[in-house]
Records
---
Amino acid sequence: MLAVLLIGVPLLAALLVFLVKGNASRNLALGFSIIELAVALTAYIQFKHNPDSALLTASFPWVKALGINFSVGLNGLALLMILLTTFLLPLIILSSFKNSYNNAHNFYGLILLMQMALVGVFMANDGFLFYVFWELALIPIYFICLVWGGDDRGRITFKFFVYTLFGSLFMLIGLIYLYNHTAVEGLKSWAVQDLYAAGRSLSETQQSAVFWLIFIAFAIKMPIFPFHTWQPDTYVNAPTQGTMLLSGIMLKMGTFGAIKWLLPIVPLGLEKWGNTAMILSVIGIVYASIIALSQKDFKRLIAYSSIAHVGLISAGIFSLNQQGLQGAIMQMLAHGINVVGLFFIADILLRHTGTREMEKLGGIRSMNGNFAVLFLIVLLGSVALPLTNGFVGEFLLINGVYQYNAWYAALAGLTVILGAVYMLRAYQKIMLGERRDSNITFGSIATSDKITLLIVCAVILVFGVYPKPLNDIAEEAVKGILVNLK
Amino acid sequence: MKGLLIISGLGILAMLAEIFKFKKLLLPLVLLGIVAAFALNFIEWETIGSIPYFDNMISFDRPALAFSGIILATSFFWFILANDYFEEDSNLVDHFALVLFALVGALMLTAFKNMTTLFLGVEIMSIPLYVLAASKKKDMRSNEAGFKYLIMGSFASGFLLFGIALIYGATGSFDLLAIRQFVADNAGNLPSFFYVGVVLMLVAMCFKVSAAPFHFWAPDVYEGSPTLITALMSTVVKTAAFAAFIRLFMIGFGGVNEVWTGTLSVVIALSLVVANFSAAMQNSVKRMLAYSSISHAGFMLMVILANVRSNISLNAIIYYSLAYSVGSIAAFGVLYNVTRKGNENFEAFNGLSKRNPGLALCMTIAMLSLAGIPVTAGFFAKYFVFTTMIGTSYKWLLILAILTSAVGAYYYLKVVIAMYFGKSDSSEAIKIEKSNTFVIVVTTVFTVVIGLVPGFIAEMFKF
């Protein structure tokens, strides 16, 4: 019941918002996203109370002839992802209050549709349904980037769409192949447990093939080197809310998919190719961090730092141990919040000063001290200073990667150092020192912006100091996953 | 069978309309007739066992009824769409009659049991289309299209006839089941000219469905013909041709797979590659849709290649034909209205989202369906095709199909990008007739509905 509500509320909200014009659409969207958050929190309470509750799953036959069921369920990992999604949406909508978009009702409607698709991806317990939601998530973000994006958005959005579609099609083939090999009393099945069993029954070469087919989709989505070339342009060109959706939540689709739909399905394939995936992740970390060092555009810098962070998450996933996976989950949550905060700050800077070039900014701290503090907190969260949420994840991740291979951990640890370098240097250039362009006046930030930033900073600090509620769920979830891997 | 008779009667009735002066009544009569034919089809579905007619030359068994249903439904929407096209026509009655006779041919192709009926169906369908392709008498390109279609189509029919003759020479019968029996009885001992006949017929049928490398007529003919005739060609004619293809090769030549499957796999590979890459380079939306129809033909041929000896193949082709026809009608409906002023390039679609948001949305859904994005009929269609292909030994074709699908997204999205991103010079909305709006909206909604509940179709067609 709750599961169905989680999908139904944003869908209904989107349909309503499409019909309402003007500012009312914005408020309606915000209201519904808060309702959705309430539903998610109810699910959380229900989960703590009774993890196997029937309220948390739902299953109806969809296409009987093909064995496809509309089967959704909330386990620990899904719940965490959904909490992230439903928590970020109101923030994302709130952050747009000071931007004026043409046909705003379409914009908010698309954001809500995207939430529906994302929630569906995290909850799907049926392989085909997972694929449908995965593809569905692509359409709203495509239109958001195409209609409200920056210059040259036609070409860039198109590259993003085709690149992602390409990966998804390979994943479809992998899933169909697995489906063909399920044999539950003569009937084939798309249910996730049956797909697990099917994958495990394959030979090593077959599992390797399936590994690559499915891994490519996730590698493109996260993105992992060398499938990352679509990301910086798309992130920079999208409207801020689009970028927040992409980096805050959509990217987690890739990492979540790797944990739920890749690791348990092809254990032999993992034995053979997991190391390669790990190497690619680690290369991505170092590569992206080095490129981030030379960026002049703040938004682009954040985009590259996102690739670096995701590389670390991915390395943690493929380390296949308790700390690595748990760190991956915690960092997914932390990165979601932090990167949304960072992109929001970039947006505020753009709105108030008209530029994102760090060379042209400077001395903003003297114009607005509160903003400087909030910016610093978000930044330190991204840099993974202890007492911020970023630290919990990164610590566990490096621990996990170290258990896999100490050299990889050393390279991965570079992200922490390089991250500190480019982030602090950016802060220095933007906020401290002399004003480089005397035409820029910063002024005070609007109330809605202030509220959003305060919430983000609060979350960073609170979950940095007391990550236990999330950590407990993550720990249980990882234990369940590792059992599947044996 | 009764449906076939009704459509034939309608054709003759149409010709009489000129003499007895009831031109205005003609369209409603035709629509009524098509609905009646469809309803009779439906009734025949329930009676178990098909009655062979004409000494077992035509037999409307369930697959035939399914394909006929799709063709009749598509032509129903087409006639509503073509309402205003025919209005400005001085040869209105002749064109109506020609379309109806082409429809007769199409229906024959879905139900043949005998090579002569196959040939009859092909000719009855094609000849009116040759004339219709050239129906814009003052337009050079239309004349060129008709001429090219006539010459190349007749040539292909020649191949068909030669193939039929050789097969008759080898087996002694025109009847499909008798041929199958002969092949089964004399396996390994067949005269070599039987194989030649099979390949010749394969070539002819590939021409009719415009599969590469026999596709060279399609872009020019599709582009030159009046837009609505192109819509007819790319939906009804393709569906009928595929119905014939699957009947011929799965029933008739099922026993001699080794002869034609290798060739067919190369044909499919070429269709996918040539069509998608050419479509990506087009400037004219109409020509792009022509190449895209070649690519869809490649997909449908893959199902025949997989030749799964259960109903999955039939289901897949039926669903694909339905999804493709419905999507195409919507797309051509929008195309017809947007390109009225003569500009058929992507620029004509610029800024359509501001001028006619509803129309832009329908076109977007149609393009997404043709590209195979979920929650549209086209996605399940592609999914069915992939499912049939996975168990076979043609995995390389499957990979090729995926790669070309991704390329396909490019040219379909180009239209969407133009609509939402392009800047148009004029900002007035395009005036569309109510009938056109009705067809476009209904077909778009239908595309999404059968994309959401494909089981409805799959259950219906339980053979």
---
Amino acid sequence: MTANTADQTETGARVREVVGSLVPGGAREVESTDRLTDLGFDSLATLELALALETEFDLQEVPEGQAVEMATVADIEALVLAMAGAPAASGA
Amino acid sequence: MSTTRHQDAAIGLLDLEDGPASRTGDGRLPEPRALYNQWEKQQWSIARLEVSRDRPQWATLRPVARRELLTALNELEVGEVFVSRTLSALLEHAPSDADRLFLSTQVADEARHAQFFQDYLHEAAGLEETVSEAERQQEDSVYARIFAPTLRASLEQVTATAGDPDPWHTAVVEYHLVSEGILAATALHQTRRIARRFDLPALEEGLGNVIRDESRHLTYGLAATRRAVEGSLRARIAAVYLAGVEAAARISVNPYRRALTPVMRPALVQQRALLAAQWDLTRRRALRQLRFIGLSDLAGDTEQAWDRGLETALAEYAGLWGTAHPVTAL
């Protein structure tokens, strides 16, 4: 495992940890394949999640042409990796 | 076709959350006495709500939810306090005894609402209110900044003219139709949805009671305004209503408060859609009332007034904060 891949893996795990901690109805473990709506995230909870991720990963820039989707936990992992400057891990 | 059925439908106007009203604005709104009778049947007390039962749940709220709820409750509390302090001018110069009796019940309602929000903020949300805190809330309130001065000036005219119909009906439009029918109705329903979402039963029940009271007040205002429109005040009422709608749009945007603007584009898109949907609900309330006051032909003007208010507020926001409002950020 290269250092870059290890960073991506660690970031993905931290993203899942943040998402899991904010699941409406109580913290739980989440998988990359989980859909936010299935986890109970409504608009307010999603906003809460986005702001928590900004703080956790110090996200500040909005990349041009960024995919407008945050449907699954994997989407969020890819988004955070992209915004943090690292390429998204394939199959995330 | 019973009168009672029409009256019940009108009394429930504020309960219509989405979609255009299915009722017809044909003038068969209830008389003040019928609304007084409803008031007698719909009594409630803050003590029986036990607002402190929500306190444990408040401790679990995350920052965004807490911020949204506190902002909404603060606005509602400021509005209720303002109304409870000033409504007496309308009562004192009411055109008939029946109007005076109904407005007396409204004064009592508004006092209870103000007390409910104050108790809730203190005993459930855990705010330690001080004199300076109360003043700060007043200063922070977008309603207090944008619309309260207009209403206060109208009330001074009511007093100065000792109940001349023109200023009296102007104030009714600003109180009942704009402050309650457009602004408070939207805020109350929206806050009740959040209360339900976060399992705050005392807040949900209390807001339900407030909504029921406000529904009576709105119905009274619609009926009184309809009479004025059918009389000699049509042009005056139209102008006041359009100015109120424009102000309501500015208040909905609230340029004085920095809106949450996530940097994650998908969340920003969602936030924009949410705010736009909330504003659209408010706009639709403004349009829906026209049918009940006999001003359906004012729909186009009302849309334009709303759009003007939005544009003004969004420009004001950008000027104040040095960045575009999330609704226009993408």
